[in-house]
């Protein structure tokens, strides 16, 4: 069950990142974050009311609040790092956030077997290579590296926090709702500050709100896929070793790369193809170890 839900997480996160990347080509990244998460808040609110999840309010929800605060900060740091580039360095570095939940799993007593330890190493290497690291070219700005490491730590922290936010299914719905409300508050605040400093909230091509309204189905998909991924990861981490769940869930860069190959016809570089292959080998080792 752990492997199944963790792989579902990778699929959902990978597709959400791909969709979010396409949307940020048409509108500001902060707008994409706030709009997609606002849709998720509405849907999750209805689910919480329908399932009676509100009755499970407790101190564990502070983990969800923490995840909701850290998530937008990590995402903004990641987008800023991508803007500074080069993307071929930033993208694989961002996936190193897997170290956080893996470390947490080891601290709380997870003890993978020798074959699974090998699978973790192979899969993490595959994840990094799947991002297509640039081994030559212009030097990377120190700020880009620091921002990427902040983003990676943030992404990994969200995984660790959301796994602790609830131990029941209805409680999980409430935790995800609280996380998304916090996301919207933090992201919305950042958007207001950005606009006051001269940034933009709507596309510059003259479409304005019409572009946002037209993109609502895609925004809904991104927001809901991200929510579902957090949910499936929480279930995976609670039903098996966190170390295995975290590594398998972090295969999402492979999904994003394959989606770009299938939809946008982007050609995979040799290093990306090798990374995807290693990630698959690591997955097999983890599942059979």
Provide an overview of this structure.
This protein has 289 residues and is mostly helical. It is built from 13 helices and no strands. It has helices at residues 2-23, 29-51, 61-84, 87-94, 99-107, 114-130, 142-162, 169-196, 209-214, 216-238, 242-249, 252-263, 270-288. Helix 1 runs parallel beside helix 11 (242-249), helix 3 (61-84) packs antiparallel against helix 7 and helix 4 runs parallel beside helix 7 (142-162).
Order of helices and strands: HHHHHHHHHHHHH
Mean pLDDT: 81
- Structure summary, number of beta strands: 0
The low-confidence parts are: none
Biggest sheet statistics: none
The number of distinct helices, counting runs of at least 4 residues, comes to: 13
Kindly summarize this structure in a few lines.
The chain is 76% helix and 0% strand. It is built from 13 helices and no strands.
Helix and strand arrangement:
Layout: H1 2-23, H2 29-51, H3 61-84, H4 87-94, H5 99-107, H6 114-130, H7 142-162, H8 169-196, H9 209-214, H10 216-238, H11 242-249, H12 252-263, H13 270-288
């Amino acid at each position: 069950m752990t492997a199944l839900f963790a792989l579902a997480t990778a699929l959902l996160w990978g597709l959400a990142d791909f969709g979010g990347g396409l949307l940020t080509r048409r509108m500001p990244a902060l707008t994409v974050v706030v709009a997609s998460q606002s849709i998720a808040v509405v849907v999750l609110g209805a689910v919480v009311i329908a399932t009676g999840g509100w009755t499970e309010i407790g101190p564990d929800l502070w983990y969800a609040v923490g995840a909701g605060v850290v998530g937008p900060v990590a995402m903004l740091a990641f987008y800023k790092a991508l803007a500074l580039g080069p993307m071929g360095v930033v993208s694989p570095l961002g996936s190193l956030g897997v170290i956080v939940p893996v470390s947490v799993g080891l601290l709380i007593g997870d003890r993978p077997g020798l074959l699974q330890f090998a699978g973790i190493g192979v899969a993490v290497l595959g994840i990094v290579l799947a991002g297509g690291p640039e081994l030559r070219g212009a030097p990377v700005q120190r700020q880009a590296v620091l921002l990427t490491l902040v983003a990676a730590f943030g992404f990994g922290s969200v995984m660790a926090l959301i796994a602790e936010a609830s131990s029941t299914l209805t409680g999980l719905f409430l935790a995800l709702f609280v996380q998304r409300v916090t996301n919207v508050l933090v992201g919305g605040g950042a958007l207001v500050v950005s606009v006051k400093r001269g940034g933009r909230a709507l596309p510059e091509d003259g479409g304005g709100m019409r572009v946002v309204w037209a993109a609502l189905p895609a925004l809904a998909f991104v927001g809901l896929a991200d929510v579902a991924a957090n949910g499936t990861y929480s279930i995976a981490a609670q039903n098996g070793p966190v170390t295995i769940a975290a590594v398998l869930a972090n295969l999402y860069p492979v999904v994003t790369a394959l989606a770009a190959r299938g939809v946008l016809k982007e050609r995979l570089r040799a290093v990306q193809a090798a990374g995807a292959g290693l990630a698959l080998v690591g997955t097999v080792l983890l599942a059979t170890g």
